[in-house]
# Entry
Amino acid sequence: MVVYRNMLPLSIHRMNPKARSLYRIGIGTAIILLLAPSLSVGAAPAPFYEDPLPRKKTIQTIGFGSCLRQNRPAPILNTANGMNPDLFVFLGDNVYADTTSPDEMKAAYLKLGSLDSFQALSRTAEIHAIWDDHDYGANDAGADFEFRQGAEKIFKWFWQMENRKPYAKREGVYASFLYRTSGRFPIKVQLILLDTRSFRSALKKKSWWSFLFSSGNRGPYVPDSDPEKTLLGKEQWDWLEHQFTVQADLRIVASSIQVLSGANGFETWANFPLEQKKLLELAVRSSGGTIFLSGDRHFAEISALDYGGRRLYDVTSSSLNQPLFFEDEHNPLRQGSRFADSNFGLLRIDDSGKNWSVRMQILDEKGQIRIEEIYRP
# Structure
């Protein structure tokens, strides 16, 4: 999933062999693996996860965005690149390829890969990507999508995940990475990338008559508290619970759909309230702070929720080059205003003092700050 400096998608040219060395597990991990059998005598062995993978790159600024039409120019990627992000996270709908045809889906990715602005960003920032419904292959699709495995194969091909840890032997496109910042008082940052498509249960739809009484709630879905329903699937949940036990000062959790806001009736974590509660409780029980990143909505906003003694933020950035101007919607968690034109997000980590903070920003195509909040743990 990581695209390194001077590297483009595999369809354009080959991987830099030096990049592979960064994926070694390290001496410490190897020793733990060797000792593991003797440490668990008489007990069922705990699952081993190759991630979080430690990265040598130090970071200070993280860019992110979603919803990119591959057939349109994307000058906003040049604007984002001009902010010198150390990482850029594509949050889903990175192409619009609603199809079950492998050739058509590959063509969509090749079109994205041919954009000069995408190539320039890929050369200077380390790239991560998760998917949403339109690069998954069908609107609002979940685990029952017929082309799920084919779409995953193509996604991993384009984003260079095919033969890389932890993706190579894993179903789905989720992963976790560890970084350090480079300031006077560096902190440890964990980037957690979720797959909200591959294992998601069917959504519960509104009854036809309920549309008559859902003022301000235009979406087609309602919350479903069925304990058998899942958003991430058992294996990814087990993996995620482990990720929240990793020592980190700041966890950045990337989800293709909004985590906190659920007042609109569209796809959000609130469609599965038990799953949403489980995620929020993981966040507040863990060490360090948590910031959620999300996309999908074709507008940008920052939501905040006081939960379990912590203040949690969800920074939504959408879209990179396909804004949709429609009626505002109610979101009681929104901080300030929303922004509906083309946008991208930035997290700027300030570790110049002992009390670190994160400046959470939404910027427009000209690089002007449109929304800003400061996270303090």
